[in-house]
Amino acid sequence: MLFPSSLGLAALSLIVSVLMAAPLGAGAPPPKLRVLLVTGNKSYEREAFLQVFHSDPALELTHVEHTAKVADAWERADTSRCDAVVLYDMPRDITDAQKARFLSLFERGIGVVVLHHALVSFQLWPEYERIVGGRWFDLPEKGGDPRETPSGYEHDVDQQIRVVSEHPVTEGLADFAIHDEIYWGYRVGKDVTPLLTTTHPKSGNPIAWTRTEQKSRVVYLQLGHGASAYSNPSYRRLVHNAIRFVARR
Question: Residue 13 — very low, low, confident or very high, per pLDDT cuts 50/70/90?
């Protein structure tokens, strides 16, 4: 009769131990969500804001920034190599070539999350308003349409947020309080699905919505002005949920 060597017994014991320790169904972790964050043309608390994304280990962040008044981040070749795009920028102008690169996202089915002041971008480009689902109207001297009444804002407001739709973006969220900026006088498209409202009497409503653009999902979240909002657990949950929703994850 043949007996295994002591070395063979040790190897066999190690294999059995590993198999017994591994959970059933265990496999490779899912790939990280590739998120392209676009900022520029608007100041913000950079490190505190980026922590919103770094706090989610499932996200792989690429951060690009416009370097001029035009939307020159869209001239980069890598803007389409992502699962979702997050806009936190506020450029005034965009060239035809930059428009084409931006619009190609929706032909490819890449989802877009639009945050806070990105509702102000491209004041004189109607297609952007239609895609985002609304527009905050700037002053004429800042590029706004002189035919429209300018919108308004107020910093450092305590407000109560109401969840008005059971939706993947609001999953796991109940009504919550936040210290943030409010907007009013902005326009909201008729084809959006409202997600959140606020009880603050000066604020416009809804303050979050979603719509579909070609092959892509689009979410707008009005919240998110400063560190007090960035660190709010409900705000972070909203952003993380929105990214997963538009990425169809």
Answer: low
Q: Which CATH superfamily is domain 32-246 in?
A: Class I glutamine amidotransferase (GATase) domain (3.40.50.880)
The values of phi and psi at residue 39, to 5°, are: -125, 180
* Overall average pLDDT of the 103-108 stretch: 96
In three-state secondary structure terms, 13 is helix
Could you say which DSSP state residue 82 is in? S
CB proximity list for 69: less than 8 A, separation 6 or greater: 41, 91, 92, 93
Span 70-79, average pLDDT:
88
Helix (H, G, I), strand (E, B) or coil at 75: helix
* Per-residue pLDDT tens over the stretch 226-235: 999 999 999 9
DSSP 8-state secondary structure symbol assigned to residue 229:
H
Q: Which of 100, 94, 96 is nearest to 80 (CA)?
A: 100
The full DSSP string for 106-164 is HHHT-EEEEEGGGGGS-TT-HHHHHHHTEEPPPPGGGT--TTS---EEEEEEEEEEEE-
Query: Would you list the domain boundaries of the chain?
Result: 32-246
